[in-house]
# Entry
Amino acid sequence: MKADAISTRRTLNADDGRLTIRGQSLFYRRLRPHPSQPASGPTLVFLHEALGCTAMWHGFPAQLVLDTGLPAVIYDRAGYGRSSRLPPGPKDKTYLHVEAQQVLPKLLDQLQIDRAVLLGHSDGGSIALLTAAARPERIAGIVTEAAHVFVEAITRQGIREAIAAYEPRRLEQRLMPYHGEKTRELFFSWADTWLAPGFGDWNIETCLGRIQCPALVIQGREDQYGSERQVRAIVSGIGSRATPLMISGCGHVPHREAPKRVREAIVEFSATLH
# Structure
């Protein structure tokens, strides 16, 4: 573990717990600023990518809690990380809607979070957009990283390349420490869903006009799973409340590939929401 991660952990209050939502046991971690830095304002809620989980955010949420003074919640969706297992196989087109409109609102209710700032990466970014559209009264702001609002050829090509990396076990070995015995089924559930012929017309652009909160829309210019068209569509759909941030020399995971730039942007964005 890096020294900065160790020191960060020592200055925060961290609590792990479980919630039962829609029959699934979900693991979550709650971070609160040190007592000398009283928490105020909304709660940061981190929404992981399609192959992610709480642990794969590493020290990024804790650092943002220190930077912003806001409390945070990070959780594993069903089928990921330390949450309960899901049946194998591809998902249908509504799987992100279910997470956004049914699971996440219940999580906010059970954790007594009245106002949230959603920070979503990839699938998590799409969930953030859908939630902000469906429950505007609960969402103070959203930050998306590499969110998708429609399917692109580059997305499917990136998934095919991920499959090629998985089969020789390179990618599998990187994911196993986080997902354990669930690793193979969650990987191919994601890949088979996005590569299915019937998923090609998946599109959530119609929800964007219902988003009332400010949005920071981040993407790497070298993202292997999506083009700048995604950012343009999101910003156009939300309107003047949305701010784009394209980062050069950065791929699909801006918070890991350009952490300082992303942190600075989120801190500045969050300060406008108090």
